[in-house]
Every structure is written in C-alpha cells, then in structure tokens.
Amino acid sequence: MPDYGHPLRFGSFISPLAAPARHAADLAVLSEDIGLDLVTFQDHPYQAVFHDTWTLLSWVAARTERIHVAGNVLNLPLRQPAVLARAAASLDLLSGGRFELGIGAGGFYEAIAEMGGPLLTPPDAVSGLDEALEIVRGIWDVDDPAPLRVAGRIHHVDGPRRGPRPAHDIPIWVGAVRPRMLRIIGRKADGWLPSLPWLQPGDFARGNRTIDESARKAGRSPKQIVRLLNVSARDRADELARLAIEDGASVFILASDDPDELRRFAEVTAKEVRERVAEARDTPGAAGASASSRAAGAGIGGDPVPASLADRALTPQERGYARYTHSYFRGARPALVLRPQSAAEVQDAVRYAAKHREVPLGIFSGGHGLSGRSLNDGGIVIAVDALDTIELLDGNRIRLGPGAVWGDVARALAPRGLALTSGDAGTVGVGGLATAGGIGWFVREHGLTIDHLRSVEVVTADGELVRASVDENPDLFWGMRGAGANFGIAVSFEFDTDPVGPQVGFALLLYVPEDIAVFLQDWGTAIEHAHPSVTGTLMIGPGGRQTAVQAVIVVDSDDPDTIVERLRPFAELAPLANQSVQLVPYSDLLVPPPGTETQHGHGEPHGHSALARHLDTDVANGLAELLASDTSFILSVRSAGGATANVPPDATAYAWRDANFLVVTLGGGTADFEERWTRLQQHMEGMYISFETDTGPEAVARAFPAAHLERLRDLKAHWDPAGLFRDNFFIDPA
C-alpha cells in the first residue's frame, strides 16, 4: 500500500469520565503541553459516568491555544446532523480553526433508543451516516445560494439556510470497519479512523484498498483521505512507522488516561516514528519519497507544486475549491489555488507563479472585490486568506495580515476605544483595500485607510520579502499606497488607529425627491459643509426623475443632541418616505445584512467609478441622465474629501485628494448606458480602482495622473520588470 504523503500527527484519546470533574480536561491540557497535535474523546451519551462529549470539547477548546479537538467518534444517531454541522462550525470559529469532525454510525442501538434516539438496524445506521454527510457538507457550503434539501430516509432537511462558514475546511473522519462504510468514506469522507487493537492482521491494508477503489470510482484521489489509527501504549514505534510507510497511516492517537503513557508517547514514540518515516520518505524510490511528486497533478503543466504548499493546494476536483470560484460579483474556475500560511510560503507561491507567466495570476485576500480581479479562469490564484493575523501593538498601533477582514479588525479594536477607517463592509479583506485606498465611514474625519499605514511587508516579483515604510524602500511604500497590486503581495501591514466612542450615530433616510439633479446638488452642498465627523452615502436605482434615494449617514459622536444637530440639514433636502436614527457601535456598521455574507457571484461583473470635486450642475445633470437609462444598475455616491485632502496629492500613488465624492455604478453595460457614462465622465476625474472593471492602457491612464503614472512605470520597471503582477490594473513598465 502507498504512503499517501500526509504529514504525521499524534494525538490522545481520553475517556470523558465525569469524576473527577476536570480530570479529562486536565489531560487534554497536558496533551497540548507535551506537544501532541490532537486531543479526542469518545462519545457515548448513554453512559451516566461520562461527561457530555460536546460540552467537554468546547471546554477544552477554550482552555487550550494550539491543539486540535475532535470526537472519537461522535454518536450520529443522537446528534442531529444539521444541528451538529452548525455546532461544529461554531466551535471551529471560536477556537480559531481547531475542530475536526469525527463521526460514527453508532453501535449500541438499544442504548441509543433508551436515550430517545431511533432504534436503528445496522444497515439503517449506515444509510443515516451517508445522508448525514450530505447534510453536514451542505450546511457548511455557504457559497451555494440554493436552499439545502436532502430527502434522506433517516436524516433529511428541507430548505434551511446554510452557514455559518467554519474557520477552516473541517475534515470529516469516519470510524468504521465494514465494507459498506469504507466505500462511503471513499466517496464522501476525509479520513478513516479505526482502532488498531480491534483490527485483525491485514484489516488495515484491506480497508485502505476498499476506500481507494471507492474514491477512484467517485473521481477522487485516494490521497484526499487521511488514514488515522487509535493505538495503545503497547504498540511500538517500529510498528507504527511501518503502518505509516507501507500502509499510509499518518495520524496516531493514543488511547490512554495515564499521564506518564501520554508523555512517553509524545516525547519518545512520536519522535522515533517521525525519524523512521522521514528516513524512508527521503530514500530514492521509496513509496513516500516525494510529497511534491504526488502533487504533480495539481501543478501547472505537470510542474510539481512546491512541497511547502502541496498539502493545501487545490484543483477543481478537491474539496474546498469552491470557495475560490466566486467573488462578490464574479464567477471563475482557476486551474490551481495555492494557499500559503506564512510569508515564506507566499514567497514559494510567487516563485512558482513566476515560472508560469503564461497563465493568469490572481491574488485573493477576502474575495469581496467588486472588480473580481482576485480570481481567474484557468490560471493560478494565490489565496492569502489564511494570513489573517490581527495583533494589537503598543499605543494605537495594530498589525494586520492581508487575509483578515475589516469587521474582525473593528471588533478587535473596539475594547480599546479605537477604530481604523476601512470601507463600509466587514467582509472585505484587508489586503485588497489597504493597497488601493480605503474610503470608509470616517473618511472625512480621518482620511483614507492608506493614510494610516506606517509600514508594509511585501513579497515582490522575485520572491523576496521586503519591508517598506517612510524610512525603508520609500519608493515602494509610495506605490503600495494606491497601486500596491502591481508591486507584490502584501503579507503584513502596520497601521495607526484613531479614537472612537462606544457608539456612533447611524441614520437611514429614504428620500423621494421631485428633481433628482437638484437633490444631488443640494446633497453635495450639505455634505461639503457638514462637520468632518459626518460621512454619507447615497444608493440609487434607475427610475428617472421620481427615483427613490436611500441615504446612509454616519456621525462620529455618541451624543444624541450632537447627532441630531449634524443631521438636521440633511432632513430638509427632500421629502422623506422613511427615516431612522440609531446609536450603534462602529463595529456593528460593518456587519453584513442577512443573506449578503457569502460570495456567490457568477459571470463577469460590470462597474465604473470616478471621482468628483463637487456635485455641481454638470455632474448632477449627468447623473440624472444616467439614472434615466433603461439599463438595470445601482448608482452609489459616496463621501470622500475632508481629511483626505490633508495629505498632498503626490504623497501616495492615490492622487485624487481634492475629490469630495466617489461615484460608482454596478451593473449597466449596454451601449446606451456606456454612452451616458462617457458623457458624465468628462465632468469628473480619475477613478477608484477597486470598483472599476474596465481594463487596458486607457483605464490605467484614467486611474492615475500623468506624473503619477510615469513614476509608477519607473517603479514597475524596478520591482516587477517582467510584469508578473499584471491582472489588476497592470502598469506597463514600457
């Protein structure tokens, strides 16, 4: 049998005895302290001497920091699968991605029935497990917008909403020995978890063959399925190493409640097994000699993926791939998704992509980007969403990874009374916004997100890790603030933040203006004369002169009288069909409305953006003409200006400092719409690149003033002369 090439892991299998009350949890903490990777508990809810296993798993996850937790295995007949899926996702989120789902069909049927569960026959229990896998996977698949329906005989669901999304791709391990269960594992599961003391000689190898055959028939690679074993203290290191080298076992879990046995397993047995397996894998021609050679099929043109990235690389056939086929508005099918977990692995990914300049290259952080440029068809996507560090530093400084999302950043800063202006959606990734600009709810008071950036670490086109700040590589630092996607992959940012009160004013106003052009001019005047703490956005759909207009206004104050006073001029602009004013924490502004949390875009998005110094007569009339189009689209007019203008235009690659408004359209695309937009565009300047889907030299020339573009071309020639980073507003060094 093959060595499937999975990394070795070692864990503990602890009895969940209820007395002494904390003994099982203490052994779990010991498991982490001695360096084990995993702690597991059996699940027999009908045993009165046992803790409830799910409660114990939650308690242990809260008491530990590194070790992963799992049931070994959870009793499916007594744990309804849709509820179990949500519970698993919640524990995974709360533990930072440290939960693994081990399940079984349940073997003590009469005891299960005594607890109120169904009295199943063994064939029914197996059928129920098969159905449960569909339900659990379906609950986690938040990228599928369709209601979840599984018409099972034992387990069924009829239309529940999907979610929440787990923190990581939770593997499902199945405890089983019978052939029918093994075939289900091959088709649907991520791991096989039998107990070695219960197996007869040859059972493990025979089981692997059954699983592998079933996987291939289902179009899966057998290497997608991890082989785990519960072992005893009597099992020697040489036998475990043989099981790894010859039979593909990679996770060994010691069943013991003896602290000394656990220590000996972690410090002696595991060390010896690792050494023996490493020696065998390094031997030329050995079954497990090269992890990268097993990943050759995942590479581009047969070129193996680097070993550091191979275990997490995704191709269209693998679970987890669907996450990288949708952004907020775009659908795509990349050939290969590389998912680094460190700056060093990003370097490996960039060097690999540089060898395959012939295919598209996308950089994915949060995947929200309205332009959809983080994804592609048939190319490479480097997904840095696992680099999601949020680290509070001394004073008002914060360090962020590109894969963190702004809603989590806001929640992390809130207890310190701090905030970082950062767009208006909490699901947006840090990496894309923090290299483009960042026009958020505090833009008029605190400027752009990039104005708070103090340093950034970047993996450049040659695979080097470079730090940029005012003092280090200042030219690169200039370019990263507004055109960063052209120069590398940012892997770490340091920002200064600003004080914020416990709550801010949040107003929703629904206007029904008689003349949309007049209203827009009046709105523009009101915004420009408002206190800097006031920021507002208009959302308008097409409909001619009787269009309804929704306004969202944020006032950075927690004093009700101040908020009402600063909102008063806006209430007088046009007849109001509805209005509401609330005091809410700033972080609540970034919570997405229900149903908009997930990204399930399809096709190609279409959007335009431009900036306006004022909503004067020409701009307002042009917007009214655009709204009179029969084309379906959404128009957004966002506040800019204010503190943004406190930074000189040539201080960053983002140049449009005098603009008080950002105009964005989403949708449209017809000839009539484009003609109207072209006429309107003549009265505005520049663009905000994250909201623009036009490509090519003309779009780039609109995005940057001539002097900026000349400087950017010089920087591109220095930092990326071959144009590796070319799929997001490519600045041609020529």
Describe this structure in words.
There is one protein chain. By secondary structure, the protein is α/β, with parallel strands linked by helices. Helices cover 32% and strands 19% of the residues. Helix 1 (23-33) crosses helix 2 and helix 5 (122-140) runs parallel beside helix 6 (179-188). The protein is globular.
What structural category do the secondary elements indicate? alpha/beta
Ranges with pLDDT <50 over ≥5 residues? 284-297
Shape verdict: globular
What is the C-alpha radius of gyration, as a whole number of Å? 28 Å
The total strand number stands at 28
Mean pLDDT: 91
First and last CA, distance: 55 Å
Helix coverage percent: 25-40%
- Number of H- or I-type helical stretches: 22
Arrangement of strands in the largest sheet: 1-2-3-5-8-9-10-11
Instruction: Describe the sheet with the most strands.
Output: 8 strands, parallel, barrel
Oligomer: single chain
Percent of sequence in beta strands: 15-25%
